[in-house]
């Protein structure tokens, strides 16, 4: 049975290295038997998380929609930039809101619990966003996700992609291919819908 994999980039910037990396990962996954969906968070705008707002108005519809999509997956690939050695606000805010969703279509859920999650990052710096991925790893584990040890960090990302959006560096490309393959294998064997 083919695994369902969702790919999310944690950047809204159109020229984002991480959007390019997410697109490349989705392309690689699409070459397999996986059912792949690339999500653009610009399509799911959310206010900054505020417990008072949640108490007054409930969870925003876009958080419910994302939670529903995530709950239907066997695997999730989060491709996130790093700001000041940590997790970016867009990704953290999205995760915070989605984690507040308790029911989808009247059924109780915990969107991230038991979900196989892979992590990747691209950065113009020499560390490739690794420190931000460590912060993201802590958050996802706290929500009950099965976060893969293997990850992909693309350093020097300003020159890391060719004109077709493919990774130009052999080491980076091999790293992303290995991450995608492992995510697919684990999602097939541990996936929630297999």
Q: Can you tag this structure with a few keywords?
A:
alpha/beta, 194 residues, two-stranded antiparallel ribbon, five-stranded parallel sheet, single chain
Order of helices and strands: EHEHHEEEHEEEHEH
Total helices: the number is 6
Q: In percent, how helical is the residue content?
A: 25-40%
Q: How many strands?
A: 9
What is the averaged pLDDT score?
94
How many strands, which pairing sense, and closed or not: the largest β-sheet? 5 strands, parallel
Strand order of the largest sheet: 2-1-3-8-9
Distance between the termini: 7 Å
Which outline best applies? globular
Cα-atom Rg, whole angstroms?
Answer: 16 Å
Give a structural overview.
The protein has 194 residues and is α/β, with parallel strands linked by helices. Helices cover 40% and strands 21% of the residues. It is built from 6 helices and 9 strands, in the order βαβααβββαβββαβα. The chain has helices at residues 17-30, 51-57, 61-71, 89-99, 130-142, 170-190, and strands at residues 4-9, 35-40, 75-79, 82-83, 86-87, 103-104, 107-108, 116-122, 146-154. The strands form 3 sheets. Strands 2-1-3-8-9 form a 5-stranded parallel beta sheet, with helices on both faces. Strands 4-5 form a two-stranded antiparallel ribbon. Helix 3 (61-71) crosses helix 4 (89-99). The longest helix has 21 residues, at 170-190. The radius of gyration is 16 Å and the shape is globular.
